[in-house]
Write a structure and sequence with these properties.
Helices cover 38% and strands 25% of the residues. Strands 2-1-3-4 form a 4-stranded mixed sheet.
Length: 77
């Protein structure tokens, strides 16, 4: 499974990336990668109009907000 954080690297993007990593760690998931996509051309291919955004297995789960650790954990279960 791949979790992609889409965004420029702003503080909100970094917070979302940290939340995703914490969710993976708390669930003790070994086969999950967290990646950060900074390239705006690649970000727009997901149809995302505002960042940060989170994509799990190529499905946009949230855009323009910062889901908390518990919400991300629910998506990963």
């Amino acid at each position: 499974m791949i979790i992609k954080i889409l965004g420029s690297g702003c503080p909100n993007c970094r917070t979302l990336e940290n939340n995703a990593k914490k969710a993976v760690d708390e669930l003790k998931l070994k086969d999950v990668k967290v990646e950060h996509e900074y390239d705006i051309a690649k970000i727009t291919k997901y149809g995302v109009m505002s960042t940060p955004a989170v994509v799990i297995n190529n499905n946009v789960k949230a855009s323009g907000l910062i889901p908390d650790v518990e919400e991300i954990k629910n998506w990963l279960k």
